[in-house]
Design goal:
36% of the residues lie in helices and 19% in strands. By secondary structure, it is α+β, with helices and mostly antiparallel strands.
Length: 204
């Protein structure tokens, strides 16, 4: 491999050499490990993210997200809780792909805590609208919609970002969204998610 290739970037500024590793990631565990490395600043390519790095608000929660990715939950989206200022208000949440067993563990959060987990089965084209971000009183971000690739163009997009085997695996995986219902509260949800994923069969 020459230096020209290792320095080459795509149109979004992502390092192509880091993309090559995703061509070999054919399991949720592998995708989670690569995501954890990206969150730790060890990679400048993240499949499904059209930027070489994450945004500033992810910085304080990046370490916990890395742990979650190494515990069977390949995260797709997240945000910290943000107390209301003049305009912006946020609920903390995290979403991602996982096995049926991990989905069951995360659903226990809704049964045993105040946190809310929404689980979408493979192939389920469910859609709802749970507000998680307000800007000036207007809803700008909602949860409740499955991001599992179902249509052929969605699977193709994931295959181009990673590889065909992983794209088909994601299509057959559970997609789970977990949120803290309390507006502005931070640093509570992610430890609970990690605890649910690493707990034993009897729960926590």
């Amino acid at each position: 491999m020459n230096n020209h290739f290792t320095d080459e970037r795509d149109s979004y500024g992502r390092l192509l050499v880091d993309r090559e590793v995703w061509r070999q990631a054919t399991t949720l565990a592998a995708a989670g490990e690569l995501t954890a490395r990206w969150l730790e600043g060890k990679s400048e390519y993240q499949a499904g993210t059209l930027a070489p790095g994450f945004d500033d608000e992810t910085g304080p929660i990046a370490g916990r997200l890395a742990d979650i990715n190494r515990s069977g939950f390949f995260t797709k989206e997240s945000q910290p809780g943000l107390a209301a200022d003049a305009r912006l208000k946020q609920r903390e949440y995290v979403t991602g792909f996982c096995s049926a067993e991990s989905a069951r563990q995360l659903l226990q959060l809704s049964a045993q805590t105040e946190f809310v987990a929404v689980a979408h089965a493979p192939g389920e084209a469910s859609s709802a609208s749970i507000p998680v971000t307000l800007d000036g009183g207007e809803v700008v971000t909602v949860l409740g919609t499955s991001e599992t690739p179902i249509e052929s163009d969605q699977i193709r997009d994931w295959a181009e970002e990673s590889n065909e085997t992983l794209a088909l695996l994601l299509a057959d995986s559970w997609y789970v969204e977990v949120l803290d219902p309390v507006w502005g509260r931070d640093q509570h949800l992610l430890p609970a998610v990690l605890g649910a994923l690493t707990s034993g069969p009897e729960g926590f």
